């Protein structure tokens, strides 16, 4: 009878794999929330700044769309480059491990047994666990034990880029619509209020996902967003009052 199913380390490994999968999904969700937060602040700062200089809808729409499209592309590109580097590193590590298993199987088996022994198993049990895991899936066992990665769970840069762009766009559409659909007399204060409410929601969501204090995280996001909007509005207002624009 196999010892793997009866051993605590084996159960722990499966539990850790499920935990890591959940953590990965939560990280993606948190990245999406933060991307939406960036879209809200970036586009809101642009349109509020332009609205501070002029009440004309055309330049506000032009600047807002430019910020929305440019920001989404920039976010997607940054995420693509970052995740591509991560993926290349993972693939390199996987390739090296596959070569090591092919060229030095005995040494790799001994190394795997040593890793399980370091987790508290006796030398004999660690060796048997290593042999059984190697027989079942040698590469997977070594990747999980030594590198904590899964061959089938390599990140996709295209998925990351798309998710980042979509999140930014969703966040950026709110302030753009708010300032375009409202009359000029109320568009700036209402947009301010709508943006701060949206930031409070994204800040609280991000904090809950990350397990940090909700109130502190929400206040930080609101204060930062308010400062950004106030700064761009003041600059736009001063430029408009000076006649430079």
Word description of this protein:
The chain is mainly α and 245 residues long. The chain has one domain (4-17, 29-240). It has seven helices and no strands. Helix 6 packs antiparallel against helix 7 (214-242). The longest helix is centred in the N-terminal third of the chain and has 47 residues, at 57-103. The model is unreliable at 1-20 (pLDDT under 50).
Present the secondary structure layout.
Blueprint: H1 8-53, H2 57-103, H3 105-118, H4 123-147, H5 157-181, H6 187-210, H7 214-242
Task: Please give a handful of descriptors for the protein shown.
disordered N terminus; 245 residues; mainly alpha; single chain; 86% helix
Care to give the gist of this entry?
The protein contains 7 helices and no strands. By secondary structure, it is mostly helical. The protein is elongated and about 80 Å long.
Q: Which residues form runs of ≥5 with pLDDT under 50? A: 1-20
What percent of residues are in strands? under 5%
Question: N-to-C SSE series?
Answer: HHHHHHH
| Helix percentage range | over 70%
| Secondary structural class | mainly alpha
Tally of discrete structural domains: 1
**Number of alpha- plus pi-helical segments:** 7
Q: What kind of sheet is the major sheet?
A: none
Mean pLDDT: 84
| Span of the ends, CA to CA | 81 Å
What would you call the shape?
Answer: elongated
Care to count the β-strands? Answer: 0
Specify the oligomeric state.
single chain
Gyration radius (Cα, Å) is 26 Å
């Amino acid at each position: 009878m196999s010892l793997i199913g009866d051993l605590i380390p084996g159960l722990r490994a499966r539990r850790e794999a499920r935990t890591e999968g959940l953590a990965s999904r939560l990280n993606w969700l948190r990245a999406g929330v933060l991307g939406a937060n960036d879209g809200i602040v970036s586009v809101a700062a642009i349109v509020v700044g332009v609205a501070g200089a002029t009440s004309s809808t055309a330049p506000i729409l032009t600047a807002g769309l430019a910020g929305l499209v440019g920001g989404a592309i920039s976010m997607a590109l940054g995420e693509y480059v970052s995740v591509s580097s991560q993926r290349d590193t993972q693939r390199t590590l996987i390739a090296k491990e596959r070569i090591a298993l092919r060229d030095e199987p005995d040494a790799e088996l001994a190394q795997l047994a040593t890793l399980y022994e370091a987790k508290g198993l006796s030398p004999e049990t660690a060796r048997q666990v290593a042999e059984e895991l190697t027989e079942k899936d040698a590469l997977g066992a070594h990747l999980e034990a030594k590198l904590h990665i899964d061959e089938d769970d390599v990140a996709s840069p295209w998925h990351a880029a798309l998710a980042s762009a979509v999140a930014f766009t969703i966040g950026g559409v709110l302030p753009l619509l708010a300032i375009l659909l409202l009359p000029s007399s109320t568009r700036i204060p209402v947009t301010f209020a709508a943006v701060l409410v949206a930031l409070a929601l994204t800040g609280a969501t991000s904090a809950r996902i990350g397990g940090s204090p909700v109130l502190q995280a929400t206040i930080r996001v609101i204060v930062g967003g308010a400062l950004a909007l106030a700064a761009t509005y003041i600059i736009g207002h001063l430029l408009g009052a000076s006649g430079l624009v």
